Amino acid sequence: MGNPLLDISAVVDKDFLDKYGLKPNDQILAEEKHKALFDEIVKKSKVEYHAGGSTQNSVKIAQWMIQEPHKVATFFGCIGTDHFGEILKQKAAEAHVDAHYYEQSQEPTGTCAACITGDNRSLVANLAAANCYNKEKHLDVDSNWSLVEKARVYYIAGFFLTVSPESILKVAKHASDNNKIFGLNLSAPFISQFFKEPLMKVMPYVDIIFGNETEAATFAKEQGFETEDIAEIARRVQSLPKVNKNRQRIVVFTQGREDTVATVDHLSLKMFPVLDIDQNDIVDTNGAGDAFVGGFLSELVQEKPLEECIRAGHYAANVIIRRVGCTFPEKPDFH
């Protein structure tokens, strides 16, 4: 469950960036001055559409890693009743993701413009409809909730805490009550800073928490851990109160090219080196974190050990960073 965004990527020139006051390599939320950008970018000659949004990216990659059967994952999120919404539906279907969108006409489908100049990409996100997810009108509907009940593993990016924390709590409690696995991502430093209350309300139900080194450090600072040591932060996060005592919380922190840190059992940690990559082969690190989670989940649902989940995460991230956006070749080469 998350924010479904349509990624619109096109090659632009410096004049285009200057016109909208964009830096060549950046990630921002759309403001009033960017409204016309979205109309203009779709008129570019080589425009590409990809179903995006953090959670949806992870789900697509998990499906790609698994290959068969199709529709191993169900995705919930809100879109508009418009052309972009139709494209999102089509792209989800092509990726074999079982997307059940809440559709409303108040707001248009959320988009993220990726303005490419050479090796750089400037991202401008407009949440719009994604922000309108409604628990009563979607999650609570019997036909949708039955899909939640069918699942064994749940994953939601922290970004969704800004949209519908009550939906996250309902799913998290269901997982906890039924001894199923609930995963959450710290997603961005601003979540730990400005959405602390909903984040900490859901934390007692979290079985697997993902994050990168910056997010981990921000979380620690906000929680008053008084340490910047990532291993110590992981231990402290693992020790936070937990409702379902049958599952030990797993904490997984990625650190870019540095080793991934994970808690293997009670307070013991392991470092997992990432795959080597030549700096020149890195095209775009956007989506690397989403890909890591996707790879991880693909092995987790097959009940593989933690080491294998992390190895798959590293593989998927390594594939994604060689390509523009969160895209992948036809088949994975993971053994």
TrEMBL record:
Give the cofactor binding note: Binds 3 Mg(2+) ions per subunit.
| Subcellular localization, as worded in the UniProt entry | Nucleus
UniProt-annotated catalytic positions: D290 (proton acceptor)
Annotated coiled-coil positions are none
Q: Which domain of life is it from?
A: Eukaryota
Under the heading PANTHER family, the entry gives: ADENOSINE KINASE
Pfam families hit by this protein: PfkB
Subunit info? Answer: Monomer.
The residues covered by the Carbohydrate kinase PfkB domain are 16-329
- One term of GO molecular function: adenosine kinase activity
Catalyzed reactions per annotation = adenosine + ATP = AMP + ADP + H(+)
From which source organism is this entry?
Cyprinus carpio
Q: So what does this one do? A: ATP dependent phosphorylation of adenosine and other related nucleoside analogs to monophosphate derivatives.
Q: CDD domains from the xrefs?
A: adenosine_kinase
Q: Which GO terms describe its biological process?
A: adenosine salvage; AMP salvage; purine nucleobase metabolic process
Q: Please report the name of this protein according to its UniProt entry.
A: Adenosine kinase
